[in-house]
Design brief:
single chain, elongated, transmembrane, membrane, endoplasmic reticulum, DAGAT
């Protein structure tokens, strides 16, 4: 089977020596949102139906 790879925009991160839990959570949320956007913009490339969503567990 062919493998389809897509790349999203870089997520800029400032180095924080001792990040707070909130800083980590906010960056994680930003990353997950970027993954959702990437999936939504490219799911047709893999014949994924429009109604299909991405789920994180």
């Amino acid at each position: 089977k062919p493998v389809t790879s897509v790349l999203g925009a870089a997520i800029r991160v400032n180095r924080v020596e001792n990040p707070t839990d909130l800083e980590v959570d906010l960056l994680h949320e930003k990353y997950c949102n970027a993954l959702v956007d990437l999936f939504e913009k490219n799911k047709a490339l893999c014949n994924v139906p429009d109604y299909q969503d991405i789920n994180f567990y």
